[in-house]
Amino acid sequence: MKITIIGAGAIGNLLAARLCATGAEVSLLARGAALEEIRRNGITMINPLGRLVQAHPHVTDDAHELGPQDVVFLCVKAHALRSLLDNLALLSGPQTVVVPMINGIPWWYPHAQPAPLADQPLDSVDPGAVLWNTIPRERIIGATTFVAVENEGPGRIRHVSDQRFVFGDINPGAPMEMVKKLVDLFGQAAFQPRATDDIREAVWVKLWGNLGFNPLSALTGAILGPLCLDPGTRGVGRTMMIEAKAVAEKLGITFATSVDERIEMAAAIGNFKTSMLQDFEAGRRLETAAIVGAVIELAERTGVEVPTLRTILALIEMRVRCRDDALQSAS
């Protein structure tokens, strides 16, 4: 199997480091400092046991060099997906499968869904329906990951906890052949993968944790454990999750996990700096559109009131503007 991973962030590096130990032909498409570091020294990973692991996947910045792939993993932030469409075109053949490994509500979510989704793209995550009209939906395999990974610099990651990945075809009734192949591949890499016939439910379970505490971490500067355990921030996050649950249930999602059980799952990760807090501190754009904005857009379609989500989104957008103004003034 020929595989390319686009994006040398925390998840992209984790996949490249672990999958290159399987029988697959794995390439990593990277750029800038990450490209140079991985070319020189490979990927340095500290695993959950605290051991240092080195991996040396094939890395390049030239998608044309790689040619059509069997599978392409998209491991960038949701708002960066448009920037990789040219590379994706070079990596795609008639049978290429695309697997987005992204946080939040994915752009493909309304595909083949009943009203009020009804194949109507989400403007919050795909303005102008560019992704919707460019990436063939019949070739998308949905995926969610529950691993906690911190990016510690170009080519260096810390795998904090968990090994779980969930894969499912976004096309109802589609054969599960490629899903099974991906589950087998990730099993060979010593992950804990599983297949599902309802990938959208898995998206919501993952989103629940991100939505409840990622924005709060960027607002407060607190890491995950204290956010989940403090009565005040836990209460705010819980209210956000309850509002999101009401939206999901309007869309036919049935949760097998309670809100409090999901919070305990997040709390068990402990002293982990969320990806949104990492991005905020680094001066990067945040994934608020996919994690919060998309849920608000779905709430509007389903007629559900989400006042806490709207409040938190307004606060974090102001926080980002103040950060950016301060950075601009300092420069």
Descriptive labels:
single chain, 331 residues, alpha/beta, 4-stranded mixed beta sheet, globular
- N→C terminal distance: 47 Å
Would you tell me the overall average pLDDT?
95
Percent of residues in helices? 40-55%
Number of strands: 12
Structural class: alpha/beta
Rounded to an integer, what's the Rg over CA atoms? 19 Å
Low-pLDDT regions: none
What is the N-to-C order of secondary-structure elements (H for helix, E for strand)?
EHEHEEEHEHEHEEEEHEHHHHHHH
How does the overall form come out from the CA principal axes? globular
Q: Regarding quaternary structure, how should these chains be classified? A: single chain
Proportion of β residues? Answer: 15-25%
Strand order of the largest sheet: 5-2-1-6-7
User: What count of helical segments does DSSP give?
Assistant: 13
Question: Could you characterize what this model shows?
Answer:
The chain has 331 residues and is of the alpha/beta class. Helices cover 46% and strands 16% of the residues. The protein is built from 13 helices and twelve strands. It has helices spanning 10-19, 32-41, 63-66, 85-91, 130-134, 177-188, 199-220, 224-229, 231-250, 259-269, 275-281, 288-302, 307-330; strands at residues 2-6, 25-29, 43-46, 52-55, 58-60, 71-74, 97-100, 141-145, 148-151, 156-161, 164-169, 192-195. The protein has a five-stranded parallel β-sheet with strand order 5-2-1-6-7. The protein has a four-stranded mixed β-sheet with strand order 4-3-10-9. Strands 8-11-12 form a three-stranded mixed β-sheet, sandwiched between helices. Helix 7 (199-220) packs antiparallel against helix 9 (231-250) and helix 7 (199-220) packs across helix 11 (275-281). It is globular and about 50 Å long. The chain starts with a strand and ends with a helix.
